[in-house]
Amino acid sequence: MASRQIEDLHPDLQPLCREFLSRCTAAGVEPLITCTYRSGAEQDELYAQGRTKPGPRVTNARAGQSAHNFSIKGQPAARAFDVVPVIGGKPIWDASHPHWQTMGRIGETLGLNWYGNPRAQFREFPHFELAKGYQ
Ligand SMILES: [Zn+2]
User: In CATH, what class is 6-129?
Assistant: First the structure.
């Protein structure tokens, strides 16, 4: 199981993530973190999905290539978190729901790279990543 713990994020991303969550709540959006850190083995398992295993393709990254796989001195230090808006206990995966744009705006205001932005290298609405420049 991939981690959902904020403590498994990069030290610079942890306070940004906490601020992101509280700003979302203040804006009337209930965010649910679905993934912070993912091990190399978990990443490879995800990569196999839709290729050598059944299911839809959900990632183009192999082990070590995803910002979720990042570690510092062997400790999880993911450079990205995935988050979905929840309404009445149900995750809203439909990216056309306005809550996604609210979350995206909040993340970008905090300097995070939001992959729901049309300028992202590929679209992945739940994915918020620490900007380059953080070691
Ligand atoms: Zn992600």
Answer: alpha beta
